[in-house]
Design a protein that fits this description.
Blueprint: H1 7-27, E1 30-34, E2 39-40, E3 46-47, E4 51-55, E5 62-63, E6 66-68, E7 73-77, H2 83-96, E8 101-106, E9 111-118, E10 121-129, E11 132-134, E12 139-141
Parallel strand pairs: 2-6, 7-8
Antiparallel strand pairs: 1-4, 2-3, 4-7, 5-6, 8-9, 9-10, 11-12
Length: 147
């Protein structure tokens, strides 16, 4: 059984979700979901990303039991128990199935990495500390990672 996320993980998640929902709802761009929600990439790869966005034009992948297909954007917030899985296993699946942007937030060192999918390959578009800009939405996410 995977341990529950830390308080710091949840604080970061809440700050990102609040900014995303406010922006996406205001502009009516699509939907934001957050864990726990299943994302079915195929029969063997089902994950619960921390945060994800699906554009209006792709809303057909949203079903009652979860998301069936690649979200447009995913954000994972690392924890000790999930770091390898998020940065290696999930990243490869997200890349393969066409997630347009993938963001990894490391609450321990404050580092954020962003990747954009170009022709089935993730290209690093950001590596540094917050704030960072989700290119797909042209939205700057601000975080205070000092707790």
């Amino acid at each position: 059984m995977t341990p529950a996320p830390s308080a710091q993980h949840q604080r970061i998640s809440r700050k990102i979700i609040k900014q995303l929902i406010n922006y996406i709802d205001e502009k009516k761009l699509g939907e934001v979901f957050y864990a726990p929600v299943d994302v079915f990439f195929d029969d063997e790869n089902v994950f619960e990303p921390d945060i994800l966005f699906i554009a209006n034009e792709r809303s057909d992948i949203i079903l009652e039991d979860g998301i069936h297909g690649a979200p447009d954007m995913i954000i994972e917030i690392l924890s000790v128990s999930s770091s390898y899985h998020d940065t290696k296993t999930k990243k490869r699946v997200y890349e393969k199935y066409g997630v347009k942007e993938y963001w990894i937030v490391d609450p321990i060192d404050g580092e954020v990495k962003g990747f954009e999918n170009e022709k089935g390959k993730f290209i690093e578009i950001f590596n540094g500390n917050a704030p960072f800009t989700i290119q797909l939405l042209n939205l700057q996410i601000t975080l205070d990672l000092q707790f």
